[in-house]
Write a structure and sequence with these properties.
By secondary structure, the protein is an alpha+beta fold. The chain is built from 11 helices and 4 strands; from the N terminus they run αββαααββααααααα. 67% of the residues lie in helices and 10% in strands.
Length: 275
């Protein structure tokens, strides 16, 4: 395929897309023409194969292939309503993978939607990484504030470490040492550096509750404060369990320091490309 043909197809695919409720979509009727299918019946068979691929991937078919109706002109200014399907980028990718690869348009679409889908996945993962890094920074700040509150009430650094460990045991039903082994975390690193985002936020909520209640109840000394922190972690655990989330059964997350380095590296590359 010549460079001019590729550029022309690229523009056609880009121009055919539309945003529906914040999601980029293609009309199956328009994609049919772009992919070189003259009959809707033949293209509908490709769509059915793509739907099966979507289902086999464990994804909700209706999220990527919602059925719609559209009006088309049929001559003399008259219109009639016909069936159509809105297709996400992922749906288009699956259609291209199940189409007739002998068609130049299909061969182009396979590469086009594969690259675009991968780009969307990378963006989504970057957002998730950023949210986790932000949650971890928030927990560090919350625990710093809590440490200051407890110091004023007779709790030293060693006592604070014990209180925090007891809280982890209440939240995860595992000692800090056992939790680190389960997560594959080194002994000299905080367990939160290897927790998924929701677990980090759970720890943060429990710590904030302790900070508020210690002051509201005017608690003094290690034992009353330890009991308060354990109760708060148990309360957060109960809330998670009621929503079907078992904290200790969640898979470990990537070392937060590696994630931070990756995000910073991506930022540097983006700035370099701009210049």
């Amino acid at each position: 395929m010549k460079s001019e043909e590729i550029k022309a197809l690229f523009e056609q695919f880009e121009n055919a897309s539309a945003e529906v409720e914040g999601v980029e979509c293609w009309s199956a009727r328009e994609l049919q023409q772009l992919l070189g299918y003259s009959k809707w019946e033949n293209f509908a068979k490709v769509i059915d194969k793509a739907k099966k691929s979507c289902q086999n991937a464990g994804l909700e078919v209706s999220h990527h292939f919602p059925d719609v109706r559209k009006m088309v002109r049929i001559g003399s200014g008259a219109e009639k309503e016909i069936d159509d399907v809105l297709l996400t980028r992922y749906a288009c990718y699956l259609i291209a993978q199940n189409g007739d690869s002998r068609k130049e348009q299909i061969a182009f679409a396979q590469s086009y939607f594969a690259v675009q889908t991968r780009r969307a996945e990378l963006i989504e993962q970057r957002i998730l990484d950023y949210e986790r890094v932000k949650a971890r920074a928030k927990l560090i700040e919350t625990e710093k504030i809590l440490s200051g509150v407890l110091y004023e009430r007779g709790v030293n650094d060693k006592d604070f470490a014990v209180i925090r460990s007891k809280g982890d045991q209440a939240l995860f039903r595992l000692s800090t040492a056992m939790l680190k082994r389960k997560l594959g975390a080194p002994d000299n690193r905080p367990v939160a550096d290897f927790l998924p985002t929701i677990s980090i936020k759970a720890k943060d909520l429990a710590a904030e509750m302790t900070s508020v209640n210690v002051q509201a109840k005017d608690l003094q000394g290690v034992k009353p404060i330890e009991s308060e922190h354990v109760d708060n972690n148990l309360a957060v655990r109960k809330m998670l369990l009621e929503r079907g989330i078992v904290p200790e059964q969640l898979p470990p997350a990537e070392d937060i320091k590696k994630v931070e380095r990756k995000l910073k590296s991506d930022e540097k590359k983006a700035l370099k490309n701009k210049n």
